[in-house]
Amino acid sequence: xxxxxxxxxxxxxxxxxxxxxxxxxxxxxxxxxxxxxxxxxxxxxxxxxxxxxxxxxxxxxxxxxxxxxxxxxxxxxxxxxxxxxxxxxxxxxxxxxxx
Length: 99
Fold this sequence. Notes:
This protein is α+β, with helices and mostly antiparallel strands. It has a single domain (about 1-95), classed as Roll (Ubiquitin-like (UB roll)), CATH 3.10.20. The protein is about 20% helix and about 20% strand. A five-stranded mixed beta sheet has the order 2-1-5-3-4. The longest helix has 11 residues, at about 30-40. The model has no long low-confidence stretch (mean pLDDT about 95).
């Protein structure tokens, strides 16, 4: 069971309280977890990654085990702690701007 923590606006859209818990077939990678997330919550399609290119949206980041996984290949295996459910995969909305 893979645990995914979504930003508040996506939790609201998907009507998820707390974490999304997903069963992922085969190897758990960013791609397979996002495939499972979008299958379970179709309203999230296009919000985290582009529906055509499957590329991560510019202001979305992925973290797990205190590591930024945003620039890892989509088919790279996730950390063991995520695979065992000990740690969640965090989907985080990035901030932009300056002053």
